[in-house]
Amino acid sequence: MIGIFRNPMSNLLFTNTVKAGRLLRMLGWVILAFTLGVGSAFGIALAIPVFTALDASMQSSLANALLRPMVPVAWILAVAACFGIAFLIVGAYIKKYKPWAKVSWVLLALMSLIYVPIGMMIGCFVLFYLAKGWKERPTVTGL
């Protein structure tokens, strides 16, 4: 039986805790990719009018007019990137069965439900694996 969560290095299937850690890390990468994509799109959309302006005084006035409304968007993207990094870090430590990571796991899984539709699906799976694997212990060292 070859499944998506099969460990190629052994004949054992991944535990529920390892599955949840992998799902959280996957969601972290999706969030970071989305944040980078949206940030790049906004940056390019703002850079084109500024750099195609005819003279230097026009460039500075365009830059000021275009960049001021973007400050809240930049903060939102920065917060989203921090969440993505938090998902990556907690997912890595969950796979190592760290006790503090399970509490963080619950909070991040609940927060991932706001990222509709992908985050909601992954968050539901993570919460499912959390419920099943809350008292699991590592079966193989070196995970």
Automatic annotation (TrEMBL):
Keywords: Membrane, Transmembrane, Transmembrane helix. It comes from Georgfuchsia toluolica. The chain crosses the membrane at residues 29-54, 74-94, 106-131. This is Uncharacterized protein.
